[in-house]
Amino acid sequence: MQFSDPNANMYGYGGDSGMPYMGVTRQPRRQSRRGGCLRGLLVLILIVVVLAFLGHLALGLSIGNGPTVIPVSTSPTVIIEASLTSSDDANLIHIHGGGPAGQISVQTALLLNLPLGFAMSYQESSDHSVVIMDMDSLGGDGTLNVTVPTGSAVKITSNADPILVENVTGQMDVTTDSSTLVIQNSTLSALSLAQSNSGTIKLLNVTLSGSTNVDNNSGDIVFQGSVENGTNQFTANGGLLAVTLLSGTSTHIDATTNAGNITSTLPGAKVQQSASGSGSELHTQVGTSPLASLTLANNQGNITINEQGGL
Known about the structure:
This protein is mainly beta. 8% of the residues lie in helices and 44% in strands.
């Protein structure tokens, strides 16, 4: 049986009110492309997480939900080695100072930069005074977070992984190839650095209370802090050597370049042409005795020496 639709032409779409009622044809609703992409991305992330979890189980390894705690003696020495070459700037060796006495905390992050990394491989001396960590055991990727107690000695050898050190009090010995090194908010009783290639070295809000040797072949050296005592030397080959001394610093300064320029805002500091005739030199002091020694040398680059207030 058919029924006539008296409203067939109510809205001016043509048609005859006497025509049989065919019903209203609804157009299918289009699915949001954005919503579909988001769901697809979430599914992909879930698949990656599941596969990683299964991979850990298959290899007999556990996912680290928390840090590994290593008991150590008073004032331990922590050695970190990373010899693999990596171009991933997300990889990082991160050292935190001020941890609880008698222990070192280690947390790795690999999967999606979450703390779900492989178990850290390390060796420890029988008296718990030396801990050696091999970052290459992580496959060369990821972030290594190490928290050390106050007074720890830290030694790092890295080929390409960036290094960040914060709030450390003690000795440091760092050898890098082309990675960036940043040390900030730290007091170092001794600091020995050898940067052989092109990375940048930054020492920000750092107090040098012992002998220091910073060497960079072609990258920049930036120092902002104070020099309390000892013999301290910064050597660059072609990058910028920028020094900002904080108030209270007492040191004698000898700065020389072979081809670059020296600029300074220190009161009474006078830059003169070097004896070779192609470079510059500056000899001055800040503060009062007893004076530390600060030697700055740059082969092909410039040197800037400023007071507190900016780099």
